[in-house]
Amino acid sequence: MPRKAEPPRAWQRMLSGRRLDLLNPSPLDIEIEDIAHGLARVARWNGQTRGDHALSVAQHCVLVTEIAGQLSPALTREEKLAALLHDAPEYVVGDMISPFKAALGLDYKDFELRLLAAIHIRFGLSAATPPKLGVFIKSCDRLAAYLEATQLAGFSTAEAEKFFGKPKDAGLARRFALKPLSPNDASALYLKTFRKLAP
Questions:
Q1: Which terminus of the chain has fewer Cβ atoms in its 10 Å neighbourhood, N or C?
Q2: How far is 44 from 56, CA to CA, in rounded Å?
């Protein structure tokens, strides 16, 4: 009788030594240092940005958190932490541009949401982002994308407004002059921001 083939490996080994099961992620296998390290090495815009370094997802997440804090100063620590972690699954799956995510369909989104739920639980947040907060974080994400597009990714203002919307606050661009950081600096910035917000 032929031997059953072993199922393909579905876990990834992290630098912390954790093995994260991608199909059934456990909060116990998630470490913030792994997230910061991974996100600092994932490029936004598929690396198509100006500067000596790619703009990392880690730096993007800090930007979204800062925008959220400026637009809504009454945000709680937990709400800001949810903003910082909004793209955390990308430390495992990478940053795919929106058109490609759309082409992959709902299965990809479900996978991403399962991983985000495990990350939230690991750091004391509810598994699912409350809908109103999710909409607000998405609006801050779009503002960050607008700034990145116009300052670093070669978009004209008109083109960026078409895809990401026109910022209501005209001074936003002046307050957030973007310069991509090295991976080590982006990782350190992400961890510093996390430690200000974590319980």
A1: N
A2: 6
**Would you call 31 exposed, middle or buried from its count of C-beta atoms within 10 A (0-12, 13-18, 19+)?**
middle
Look at residues 87, 1, 107 and name the one whose alpha carbon lies nearest to residue 44: 87
Which spans in the chain are helix H? 32-39, 57-71, 77-84, 90-93, 98-104, 106-122, 131-151, 157-164, 172-175, 183-197
Q: What is the pLDDT along the chain (199 residues), one digit of tens a residue?
A: 556 666 666 788 999 999 998 888 999 999 999 999 999 999 999 999 999 999 999 999 999 999 999 999 999 999 999 999 999 999 998 776 666 666 665 577 788 899 999 999 999 999 999 999 999 999 999 999 999 999 999 999 999 999 999 888 777 777 899 999 999 999 999 999 999 999 7
Match 């709680």 to its residue by tokens: 76
pTM: 0.90
Whether the CB-CB separation of 47 and 54 falls below 8 Å is answered with: yes
Length reported for the chain? 199
- Computed from CA positions of residues 179, 184, 189, 194, in that sequence, does the dihedral angle turn out positive or negative? positive
Given a contact cutoff of 8 angstroms between Cβ atoms, the answer to whether 198 and 81 are in contact is yes
